[in-house]
């Protein structure tokens, strides 16, 4: 991967399992701009949060509906110094069942994450989209 900031961002999720949420939050905060715009789009609509605290609020809200093992395969669709787009490939747990299902297999959803990185090397935008099929 060319964009090392987004690469570190993605790798930091493994800290949740190995060192806990506090270590994850500390490391992730170093990569996020105070002016960050973080959005999630899924079957419930779009939630947009602002700033580093907003990012974590959005992540907490997302986690009430979806579960992931944080070790997903990734397909990079775009990878430049200022923009990264990645498709996340894995099984997705549905905390609140959708259409009677409590999980979505890799071929039953499309999960993409798009990032914008500012000139200072901090992430200024994150948009996570999960479309269930």
Q: Which helices and strands appear, and what pairs or packs with what?
A:
Layout: H1 4-12, H2 14-18, H3 21-29, E1 32-42, E2 45-50, H4 51-63, E3 66-67, E4 73-79, E5 83-89, E6 92-98, E7 101-104, E8 109-117, E9 123-132
Parallel strand pairs: 1-9
Antiparallel strand pairs: 1-2, 3-6, 4-5, 5-8, 6-7, 8-9
Indicate the CATH topology.
Nuclear Transport Factor 2, Chain: A
Q: Which strands sit side by side, in order, in the main sheet?
A: 2-1-9-8-5-4
Reading the helices and strands in chain order gives HHHEEHEEEEEEE
Largest sheet: 6 strands, mixed
Counting DSSP H or I runs of 4 or more residues, the number of helices is 4
Number of extended strands: 9
- Estimated share of beta-strand residues: over 45%
Helix content: 25-40%
List low-confidence stretches: none
Described by its quaternary structure, the protein is single chain
Q: How would the global form be characterised?
A: globular
CATH architecture descriptor: Roll
Mean pLDDT: 95
Count of spatially separate domains: 1
How far apart are the first and last residues' alpha carbons, in Å? Answer: 29 Å
Characterization of this structure:
Helices cover about 25% and strands about 45% of the residues. The chain has a six-stranded mixed beta sheet with strand order 2-1-9-8-5-4. With about 130 residues, it is an alpha+beta fold. The mean pLDDT is about 95. The chain is globular. A hairpin with a 5-residue loop joins strand 8 (about 110-115) and strand 9 (about 125-130). The protein has a single domain (about 5-130), classed as Nuclear Transport Factor 2, Chain: A (Roll), CATH 3.10.450.50. It contains four helices and nine strands, in the order H-H-H-E-E-H-E-E-E-E-E-E-E.
């Amino acid at each position: 991967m060319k964009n090392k900031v987004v690469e570190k961002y993605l790798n930091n999720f493994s800290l949740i399992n190995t060192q806990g949420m506090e270590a994850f939050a500390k490391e992730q905060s170093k990569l996020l701009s105070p002016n960050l715009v973080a959005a999630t789009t899924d079957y419930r609509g779009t939630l947009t949060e602002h700033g580093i605290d907003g990012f974590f609020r959005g992540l907490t809200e997302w986690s009430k509906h979806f579960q992931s093992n944080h070790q997903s395969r990734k397909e990079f669709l775009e990878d430049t110094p200022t923009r990264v787009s990645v498709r996340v490939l894995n099984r997705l747990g549905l905390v609140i069942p959708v259409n009677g299902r409590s999980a979505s297999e890799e071929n039953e959803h499309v999960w993409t994450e798009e990032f914008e990185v500012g000139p200072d090397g901090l992430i200024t935008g994150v948009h996570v989209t999960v479309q269930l099929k």
